[in-house]
Specification:
The protein has 149 residues and is an alpha/beta fold. It is built from 4 helices and 5 strands; from the N terminus they run αββααβαββ. It has a 5-stranded mixed sheet. The protein is globular and about 40 Å long.
């Protein structure tokens, strides 16, 4: 089931607590996407049933694993779902490993002041995502994952 994610515009004046601010990006329509660091690659994807199972047939339970399997399915196995975009970056196993190593961040709030959980999004009712891989200002790799619609 698709949820309308028009909450982003309502987030412009919200501020995050210090604890949440470290793990999320404050939405700013004047500076969209507002990535605090150097973007390496961005793309849109949809997670299909085969993205939740690794190549050994085991069910994946970690958001980073699902995102990595999605890119492996696109680039290595040729399993491209109807909403998968090609990214041109995650073409090798070494680059896909960066997904596993990256910290996941998302928007700070869902429009009503609640922290957004990436695992809840990926394993929940959302099906289309924007993803940015970037070097954060702290030098760590980060994946900005957010629902689009």
């Amino acid at each position: 089931m698709f949820r309308n994610m028009g909450f982003a515009l309502a987030m412009t004046t919200m501020s995050a607590s210090a604890a949440i601010a470290q793990d999320c990006i404050v939405y700013d329509p004047e500076n969209y996407p507002g990535i605090p660091g150097q973007v390496i690659v961005d793309y849109v994807t949809g997670f299909d049933s085969f993205d939740f199972v690794n190549s050994s047939g085991q069910r994946l339970t970690d958001a980073n694993q699902v995102i990595r399997q999605d890119r492996a399915n696109v680039h290595k196995f040729g399993k491209i779902g109807p909403h998968d975009n090609l990214d041109g970056y995650f073409t090798t196993a070494e680059r896909r490993q960066q997904i596993t190593d990256a910290d996941i961040v998302t928007w700070c709030h869902d429009g009503v002041g609640k922290p957004v959980s990436v695992p809840d999004m990926i394993f929940g009712d959302y099906f289309l995502f924007g993803i940015y891989l970037f070097h954060g200002v702290d030098g760590r790799l980060k994946l900005h994952v957010f629902p689009v619609g």
